């Protein structure tokens, strides 16, 4: 299915997410109420939006504390009057979760938004699974509970309006991030994945390698080594499911992993060649 308003510029930062119409207060249903879903919900509640949640894990007690209705059964969740359904599942479980939802129970045209760290995969799944009359917005808030704990100002929100008919509703959702000071970056899902493979996936890969090596802080750390320690710790804070999802569902990540292997081998061969030259000179 084709995009009705996808972005033509792949890497432009926009100061305004779209129309000049005043933002609406939204009713937002969150699918997957884990750490990241909770993190986003708190800001949405603070801004005055109504939120409700459904999840495979029973978060009813936590939702009660947040004054967020929790639906253990997805059918009444879908039948609730949601303006937006926000998908906060893991990358690996997205397809299974969406295909298990009886979407025919939706009572109204709804905007579906995902916040996954890959973009082509959720775009394709959403367009395949959703009825034609549902709007689709793909987003990637490039921050989380740790990096965004002191506010979202200047943190990037990457998005593509994949299929948007209700511009006011879409703009109102994007305004949640814009009003918090996020840097709004409109970019195609393909371009996002290409850039993220070289930045996010590569960082995760090197952090995982450092963790496998078991590097630890020493009494004579250089600044460069402290950067490596932080990279290792950052990778360890994320689940291996997230890391594997970044690889499996981003076609550009597989190329970057191969480039990493080849580049390591080139550096290794240059070192061995230099060592051989030095040994030859000493033996003369």
Automatic annotation (TrEMBL):
**Keyword S-adenosyl-L-methionine applies:** no
Which SUPFAM superfamilies does the UniProt record give? Answer: NAD(P)-binding Rossmann-fold domains
Please note every region of biased composition (Low complexity).
Answer: 1-20
The region called Disordered is annotated at 1-22
Q: Name one GO biological process term.
A: tyrosine biosynthetic process
Residues annotated as domain Prephenate/arogenate dehydrogenase: 26-284
Q: Which UniProt keywords apply?
A: Coiled coil, Oxidoreductase
Q: What is this protein called?
A: Prephenate/arogenate dehydrogenase domain-containing protein
Organism of origin: Gossypium stocksii
């Amino acid at each position: 299915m084709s995009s009705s308003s996808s972005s033509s510029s792949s890497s432009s930062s926009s100061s305004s997410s779209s129309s000049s119409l005043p933002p609406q207060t939204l009713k937002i249903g969150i699918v997957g109420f884990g750490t990241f879903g909770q993190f986003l919900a708190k800001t949405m509640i603070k801004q005055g939006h109504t939120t409700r949640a459904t999840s495979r894990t029973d978060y009813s007690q936590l939702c009660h504390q947040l004054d967020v209705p929790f639906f253990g059964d997805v059918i009444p969740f879908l039948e609730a009057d949601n303006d937006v359904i926000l998908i906060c599942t893991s990358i690996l479980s997205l397809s299974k979760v969406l295909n298990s939802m009886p979407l025919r129970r939706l009572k109204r045209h709804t905007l579906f938004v995902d916040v996954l760290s890959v973009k082509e995969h959720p775009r394709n799944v959403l367009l395949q699974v959703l009825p034609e009359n549902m709007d689709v917005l793909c987003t990637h808030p490039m921050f989380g509970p740790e990096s965004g704990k002191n506010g979202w100002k200047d943190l990037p929100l990457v998005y593509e309006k994949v299929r948007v008919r209700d511009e006011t509703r879409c703009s109102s959702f994007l305004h949640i991030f814009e009003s918090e000071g996020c840097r709004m970056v409109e970019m195609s899902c393909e371009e996002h994945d290409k850039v993220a493979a070289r930045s996010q996936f590569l960082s995760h890969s090197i952090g995982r390698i450092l963790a496998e090596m078991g590097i630890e802080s020493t009494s004579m750390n250089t600044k460069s080594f402290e950067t490596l320690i932080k990279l290792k710790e950052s990778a360890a804070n994320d689940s291996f499911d997230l890391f594997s999802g970044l690889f499996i569902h981003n076609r550009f990540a597989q190329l970057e992993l191969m480039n990493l292997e080849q580049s390591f081998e080139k550096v290794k061969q240059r070192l061995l060649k230099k060592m051989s030259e030095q040994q030859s000179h000493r033996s003369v």
